[in-house]
Design goal:
Layout (H helix, E strand, L loop, with lengths): L1 H12 L5 H22 L15 E3 L2 E4 L2 E2 L2 E5 L3 H5 L6 H12 L4 E5 L10 E3 L2 E2 L1 H17 L2 E5 L9 H11 L15 H15 L16 E5 L13 H17 L4 E3 L29 H5 L7 E5 L1 H4 L5 H23 L3 E6 L10 H20 L4 E6 L22 H17 L10 H6 L2
Parallel strand pairs: 4-5, 4-13, 5-8, 8-9, 9-10, 11-12, 12-13
Antiparallel strand pairs: 1-2, 2-3, 6-7
C-alpha cells in the first residue's frame, strides 16, 4: 500500500515543483491514519453489498425472500473468544468456510462473555472494545461467507459468566435482593443490568461493516438465554415474567430479527405432556414450560435441545434414539398445532464418553434428527431446522467436549450432514451460503 501511494505521488508531482507540499500533506494524512485509523479503517475485502436478506417468519415457517427456509446448521460457541487473539482468529473464517462448503446456513454462537477471561462485559455497562471488535469480526466474516448467526445473549450456566456473574455484580454493589443465581430473573437491578447490555449489543455499530447489529441480515436472530432454568420457582411464573419483559424490550429496539428463548424443551408441571414426553420426572420441576415460554407474540420461534446421554443413564442406544424421535415429533406437533410457530432444535449431541461408544452411533443419532426434520420439511411443517453441537476445526482439542467434533474427519458423518443439505434443497429452494455450491455439495461422491 505504501509503495502504491509513493508511486502515485511521484506521478502527481510530474516535475513541476509540487513535491514538498505534497509530501507534507501526505505526512499529515499518515499521522492521522496511524493515530486514528481504527476508527474508520475497513478491510477492502468486506463489503455491504451482500445478497443476504433478513430471515422472516410466516406462521410456522421460516422464510427468506418469500421462499421456505429449512435450516441445516451447527454450533461454534467459541467464535468471539477466539477472534480476540491474532493466533486463533483464523479459526473463525476456516470454520465458517467449512460450514458453507457443507451447505450449512446458520451457526449459533455466544454474543456474551461476562466478567471472565477476554470478557466482553467487564462489569455492568462496561465493555472491552478489543473484545467487541472481535464480535464485529465474527459477524463480518459470517456476512462475507454467507452464513447467518444465531446470537445468544446470556448463559444460564456459569460458563462465560452467565446469570451468576450478574448476581455477583449486584451483590458486590449492594443492590442485590438475594445471592441466589435465580435472582437474575426477578431482581430489578439485575434486570436493568441485562437490559442495558442488550441495548448495547443491538445498537452496536460494527466497526468493520458500518452496520448496527440490529440492521444486519447476517444475524439470523437473537436468543434470550442459553438453557434457562429457575428451580426456585417451579411454577414457572418468575421465568415467564422475565421472558415477556425482556422479549418485549428487545422488540422495541429491533423488530427486524427473529427472537427465541433458548429452551431445552421441557414441559412444565401443568402440561399433560410432562409425564408422557419429558425425559424423566425432574424435567417438570425446572421452572420452565415449553408451550408457555414459547407462546408470547414477541417470541418468533421455539427452541429445543436434544441430549439423551445427559437425560438418561440406563437406556440403550436404541431406547435413546426412540426417545429422540418421539421428543422431536412432539415439539414439531406443538409448533404446527398449538404455537403456530417454527421449532428449531438449536442443540443436539451424542456423547463419546458412553460406555462402548463408537462413532457409528453418532451417525445413527444424526440420521434420526435429520430424518425428522426432513419429514417435516416435506409437509411444510414447523420443524424449521437443527443445529449440531458442536463443530470445531483442527487443533482445538482443548476446547472440545464429549459432544464436539471436526465433521470432515469422519467421511460417513460428513456424508450424512451434506446429504441432509441436499435432501432439503431438493424439497425446497434452499438458501446456500455465498461460498457454497449446491451442485458441488450434492454431486460429489
Amino acid at each position: 500500500m505504501v509503495k502504491s501511494s509513493s508511486s502515485s505521488g511521484y506521478r502527481m508531482m510530474g516535475g513541476n515543483g509540487l513535491f514538498f507540499p505534497i509530501l507534507g500533506f501526505a505526512c499529515i494524512i499518515a499521522f492521522i491514519y496511524l493515530s486514528f485509523g481504527d476508527l474508520f479503517s475497513v478491510p477492502v475485502r468486506y463489503t455491504n453489498e451482500s445478497n443476504l436478506s433478513f430471515v422472516e417468519r410466516n406462521g410456522s415457517n421460516f422464510m427468506v425472500d418469500g421462499e421456505l427456509f429449512y435450516i441445516n446448521g451447527w454450533n461454534s460457541y467459541w467464535f468471539m473468544d477466539h477472534a480476540v487473539l491474532d493466533n486463533s482468529r483464523p479459526r473463525i473464517r476456516a470454520m465458517l468456510q467449512a460450514g458453507a462448503k457443507m451447505g450449512l446456513t446458520v451457526c449459533r454462537t455466544w454474543a456474551f462473555n461476562d466478567g471472565d477471561y477476554n470478557a466482553l462485559q467487564i462489569s455492568p455497562g462496561q465493555f472491552d472494545e478489543r473484545v467487541f471488535k472481535a464480535l464485529d469480526y465474527v459477524i463480518a466474516e459470517a456476512r462475507e461467507v454467507g452464513v447467518r448467526l444465531l446470537l445468544s445473549l446470556v448463559n444460564n450456566l456459569d460458563a462465560y459468566g452467565g446469570k451468576t456473574q450478574y448476581v455477583k455484580w449486584a451483590w458486590s454493589e449492594g443492590v442485590s435482593l438475594s445471592p441466589s443465581n435465580d435472582s437474575f430473573f426477578y431482581d430489578p437491578a439485575i434486570r436493568i443490568y441485562f437490559k442495558n447490555y442488550v441495548k448495547t449489543i443491538l445498537t452496536r455499530k460494527n466497526t468493520i461493516t458500518g452496520l448496527q447489529y440490529r440492521d444486519d441480515p447476517a444475524i439470523f436472530g437473537w436468543e434470550l438465554i442459553n438453557e434457562p432454568r429457575c428451580i426456585t420457582d417451579r411454577s414457572g411464573d418468575t421465568l415467564q415474567d422475565w421472558i415477556e419483559e425482556m422479549s418485549t424490550f428487545i422488540k422495541t429496539i429491533d423488530n427486524k430479527h427473529l427472537l427465541t428463548v433458548g429452551l431445552e424443551g421441557f414441559y412444565g408441571p401443568k402440561s399433560p405432556k410432562r409425564k408422557t414426553v419429558n425425559p424423566e420426572f425432574w424435567a417438570a420441576d425446572m421452572g420452565v414450560d415449553f408451550i408457555r415460554n414459547s407462546a408470547p407474540s414477541t417470541i418468533d420461534f421455539a427452541s429445543v435441545h436434544i441430549y439423551p446421554d445427559q437425560w438418561f443413564k440406563r437406556k440403550s442406544l436404541e431406547g435413546k434414539l426412540k426417545f429422540v424421535a418421539d421428543w422431536m415429533h412432539s415439539h414439531i406437533e406443538d409448533g404446527d398445532q398449538v404455537l403456530k410457530k417454527p421449532v428449531m432444535f438449536t442443540e443436539f449431541g451424542l456423547s463419546d464418553l458412553n460406555k462402548g461408544f463408537d462413532p457409528s452411533q453418532r451417525d445413527e443419532f444424526y440420521k434420526v434428527v435429520f430424518d425428522v426434520i426432513y419429514k417435516s420439511a416435506k409437509k411444510k411443517g414447523a420443524g424449521g431446522g437443527s443445529l449440531a453441537w458442536q463443530f470445531l476445526v483442527e487443533g482445538m482439542e482443548e476446547f472440545n467436549d464429549d459432544f464436539g467434533m471436526v465433521p470432515w474427519r469422519r467421511a460417513s458423518t460428513y456424508r450424512i450432514i451434506t446429504r441432509h443439505t441436499c435432501k432439503l434443497a431438493r424439497t425446497h429452494r434452499t438458501v446456500i451460503p455465498a461460498t457454497g455450491n449446491i451442485n458441488n455439495i450434492c454431486n460429489s461422491k
